[in-house]
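Students often ask why we bother encoding 3D structure as a string. The short answer is that it lets us treat folding as translation between two languages. Here is a chain of 337 residues written in the first language.
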Amino acid sequence: MTHSSSLGFGVLGAGRIGALHARNIAGSIDGARLVAVMDANPDAAQRAAYGGAAVCDDVDTLLEHPEVEAVLIASPTTLHAEQIKAAARAGKAVFCEKPVALNLKETYDALAVVREAGVPFQIGFNRRFDTGFREVARAIHAGELGRPEMFRSQSSDPTTPPESYVATSGGIFLDSVIHDIDVARFMVGDIKRVTALGRVLVADYMNDYGDVDTSILTLEFTGGAIGVIQNSRRTVHGYDLRVEVHGERGKLVTEAERATQVWKYGEGGIQGDYIYYFIERFRDAYRAEVQAFVDSVREGRTPTPGAEDAVEALRVALAATKSLKEKRPVEVSEITV
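And here it is in the second language, the structure alphabet:
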């Protein structure tokens, strides 16, 4: 591949995220083109095969396509590790939605194959590519806030996921809160200890899988700062997300509550609309993260966030899960293979 050529993508998984990525690659990612799509549901794959992309029956067929140079993995989490290994062994650059796996051993094994193959790898922590999140991180890293002292992240979904999804998700900390954990690491730094509290207040079926739908996670950073992450699977006013970082020189806040940046004033009061879910909230960030991956691969740079970020966010999420189950603070250092 030369710098002037486009990067040919194969997409594994054509659900809501995979289809979004496929559409972006086909039409709005500079230097990329959609070559092939594969999904267990052929109809879903066909719908996501934008621009005349090939529809493949299985992973091997997609990897053997002569024009596929990079693989974007957006399949169910339980398939990620094996698909990463297969793509890396085939010499393809790999972009994978989070997490790599639901445990450290499978994660380490998959990333070892990536390292041995010498292929580029990026993990899909899309919030790092949101303009507000990036500016907060930039300002902190530039020292504009002084020493960070407190971090707070709130992520609340408008509705609970289907029971079939919860059954294989790994729980709220590995499925959802891991995004907030990555943001905390991205902005403030490594986390050494967590304490989790959780309840089932929305969907009783969570109990059948040892999961919760409402959680609070306190963080202790290695640099001395403290933090809290709040998550709920029910927010009747839509997707509710904000991050605050308090430091010695002030506070930084990023949030985006409304889909349309308009307030309506009238006899009935002041009204505004809202963003329904994460797809709408992070639509631009999803495009930006893949653009960053493409640029890194074409320019020979190491993509970021990479393998270390995938591992460390997972370790904190596993520590949070352990804390919830054992009802005690957990050192991240306790989480080993």
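Translate back mentally: The longest helix spans residues 307-326. Keep this in mind for the problem set.
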